[in-house]
Amino acid sequence: MPMWKIYVPEGAYSKEQKKAFTDAITDTYVDFAGLPRFYVVVVFHDQPADSIWIGGEPANDFVRITIDHIARRMPESDDFRDMTMAAFEDAIEPHVKHRGFRWEIHIDETPIQLWRTNGIKPPPGDSDAEREWARLNAAAEWEMV
Fold first, then answer.
1. In sequence order, what are the beta bridge partners of 9?
2. Residue 145 pLDDT more than 80?
3. Is the separation of the CB atoms in 62 and 102 below 8 Å?
4. Mind listing the pLDDT tens digit for each residue in 66-117?
5. How far apart are CA 137 and CA 127, in angstroms?
6. Which of 17, 39, 37, 32 is nearest to 88 (CA)?
7. Helices 15-33 and 78-92, interaxial angle, to 10°?
8. How far from chain centre, in Å, is Cα 82?
9. What pLDDT does residue 2 have?
10. Are 52 and 63 in contact (CB under 8 A)?
11. The whole model's pTM is what?
């Protein structure tokens, strides 16, 4: 499950703009990694004016994105990681750069063994059980076969 936390200037995005932004993020995971849509969680944190500071100066035009990857771990290949970051930059660019914001993004990775959803251990990636979760767009009990 990727968990995106997006810190934005207060009022920077309408509900419709947040929907478009989250659709771009979610589509990237579905298309790029084959994840079920419901794995992708995005939380917008509206920050009041003068709440974000960079280098001792207020940064009221800044968007900070932190991502925690849990459902998949990226291979340690620099090429793969560069490709992943490029895919994310492509997804977010219309929502930050094209709107005049400065931005920063980083990814942390949590081991899948430390994740549960609705108290259920997730099935292995690309398994029949995970494909069923994708079809249902929700977690469901499953058995290892």
1. 47
2. no
3. yes
4. 999 998 888 889 999 999 999 999 999 999 999 999 999 999 999 988 999 9
5. 15
6. 32
7. 150
8. 16
9. 94
10. no
11. 0.90
Taken in order 3, 9, 15, 19, the sign of the CA dihedral is negative
The string over 82-105, giving b where at least 16 C-beta atoms fall within 10 Å of a residue's C-beta and e elsewhere, is: eebeeebeebbeebbeeeebebeb
Q: How many residues does the chain have?
A: 145
DSSP 54-122: ETTEE-TTEEEEEEEE-S----S-HHHHHHHHHHHHHHHGGGTGGGT-EEEEEEEE--GGG--BTTBPP
Q: In whole angstroms, give the CA distance from residue 20 to residue 133.
A: 24
- Encode pLDDT of 3-32 as tens digits: 999 999 999 999 999 999 999 999 999 998
